[in-house]
Amino acid sequence: MYSRQIKEGALIIITISPISFSQEKADQENSLQYNYYNNRLSPFVIPNLKIEDYLQNQIVPFFRAGFLWREKYANEMAEKALTSFADQWVTQKSDTEESAPLTNSPQNVTTKKADTVSGAVTIDYTFNVRGIQIELTSLPTTSSSQLIESVNFMFNKWYFSGGFGNQYFAVNRKDLEKLIAYCLQKKWRPVLITIPVSQALLDGLEPNYMQTYVYDNLAKTNLRGAPLFDLSANVQLTQNTKLFSNSDHLNRTGSVIFSYLLLQRLIDEGYVSKNVDGYDY
């Protein structure tokens, strides 16, 4: 739907999860999600829809992409705006305001939030490479027992819900091949990445789950030369329970660290320029 807004040479990240090949293919015609994103569903029939979410997803689909950039450079851009339009704007500042430091700048603020798994206070490592590296090398402080309920839920869902199984392997491999072929046809650059899940979940599944459900299927798929970055094999992520909100989803801290690792891999492999690295070192 948004293909005309993507330039030639664009990098297309295709995520491969532990259920990418085993999940039943959705009925597109009767799928609420499919019709919503394909502009075939009126927003007025969607219950509890927030209009700002609809606008950001439909009218301005790439609006969210600049959020972290704006978050980091908000003060700098605000200062430029005030300087550029100073002749048109009348502003009044007290002596206290003028002398006060910019305490809300990203460099001066450390955001602390409660971790959804342990309840412990965690630090927002966005753009903070030193903090990311410390977290990656630190030992997990949260027991994997915190994820047992989620592990049991995912186990029952993936094995016994009826919507997953090896009978869907072939059709999902074909869909992935079509997606890669479409990217190449549009002269985009597809890159496949695997998404990490917690070690607690991996330990709860069959011993050969990832090999049977993910890697064997990738080996049977014509990737047309598209590279695979297997980030799910990074034990610094999978074994650190603090980085997960549940057994199969990273929390905010985990997502920030994952995004940093992915960017560095893309830079190292020559897919993006070092100039796009806006992290604080």
Describe the fold and architecture:
Helices cover 41% and strands 9% of the residues. It is mainly alpha-helical and 281 residues long. β6 and β7 form a beta hairpin. It has helices spanning 32-37, 51-59, 67-84, 95-99, 129-137, 148-160, 169-185, 199-204, 209-219, 235-238, 252-268, and strands at residues 11-16, 112-114, 121-123, 189-194, 228-229, 244-246, 249-250. It is built from 11 helices and 7 strands. It has a domain at 3-26 and 110-276: Rossmann fold (3-Layer(aba) Sandwich), CATH 3.40.50. It has a 3-stranded parallel β-sheet. A two-stranded antiparallel sheet has the order 2-3. A two-stranded antiparallel sheet has the order 6-7. It starts with 10 loop residues before the first strand and ends in a 13-residue tail after the last helix.
Tell me the Rg in angstroms.
22 Å
Shape: globular
Report the portion of residues in β strands: 5-15%
Number of strands: 7
Helix content range: 40-55%
CATH topology of the domain at 3-26 and 110-276: Rossmann fold
How many alpha or pi helices? 11
Query: From N to C, what is the helix and strand string?
Result: EHHHHEEHHHEHHEHEEH
Features:
11 helices, 41% helix, 281 residues, 3-stranded parallel beta sheet, single chain, globular, mainly alpha, Rossmann fold, two-stranded antiparallel ribbon
